[in-house]
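Pilot study result, target chain (394 residues):
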Amino acid sequence: MDEKTQILLHSAQNIRTVDVDTFQKIELSNKRSLVHEYDARNVLSATEQFNIEREANAVYRIYGKIEYLSILNGLRNNYTKLEHYFSPIYTGNSKNILNSFDFYLVRPYTGFTHVTSGSNDILYVRYFQVIATPNEFELFPIGFANNVYGEQAYSFNFNTDFDVSDYFDEFGFPATELFLYAQYKNASIPTENFSFTRWSVTGVPSKILFTPITFNIGDFVRTSINENIGDLIEYSKALFLQEQFSPQTYYISTPYLDGYTIKRLQWKYNPFIPLRLRYFTEQAYGANISGTSYEQTSSIPAYATEYPTGGTGNYVWRNILEQGYIDPLTEIGVDYPFVNKKRYLFSTIVLDIVPDLNDANTLAVFSQLKFGAPTEINTTPVVDDINNIGKPCR
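Predicted structure:
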């Protein structure tokens, strides 16, 4: 409708112009079209159409912010003494998030039964499958942004999109979370030991030494001898519910010299960082499909679980909360931007590697450190002799 029109200047302003203005007539017209009564709602409800498209789409773009909080951040690569841990350097030859970790995106996939507690609630070790490698992961500083200790904060982005519509775990649950897997790269000089948590058939955890390896898409997170690594979850079939019972914990053992004796500090962290896609409702539902009307059976989601099993026709499930809906009672829900047929999932992550105070030597070292606000350890004597008032203190 708009057309650019050039206005020529007067000859007194430019000797090469002519005393003629050029213009073009623009005609505006409109046409009325009848909106039928039965079609008015569909035509006018753009919000409803947006919600329908967003709910039907399961493609995610994942990005966010990472703050690395640890005494190991800034530790010189050739550290040998205890004081090196408390004298960080942030330039040159030192540890940081860029050279200390490999990042993968993983999804919950399968599990192995370990402990039975009753007929319905069972503990499982949940294993994770790689869906993106460091080749698809980008990590870069966020300008002048720092964490609470004045250290550089970072932004991350996966340069590929993820369609989660086909992601189901061994129990038939649709994916409600993905996980950022942070794998520490332990140094060989000085020798750093790396351990993961393994649960026995009785549910007792133990630390197992392992050497990190690289993964491809489709691999399980595992050790070099093909032992899968996961966390411990509790699964209730009757309630259609999974809850984390115990997270995976990695342990890093770093050496230092105390005189001529090599001692070690132990650190720990959770390598599986959740990225929330969506939530199940707090309410569980049950129905029997035998003799049930089509209207009722069609409302049962495809991922519903038969319980009890054996052809009873009884199914249990939980609905998935719609995007943009926040439950007023539990305050759970997600409302991610939906643009260009993608949901944009932004996460703020704190990657913290902390001292393991269950280790005797680590506890002894950190018990000697003073934390908190400065305290007064000596004072000037109070002058209570009138003859000494005004005299300089000794």
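One observation from the pilot: The chain has a mean pLDDT of 86. A full batch analysis is planned for the follow-on phase.
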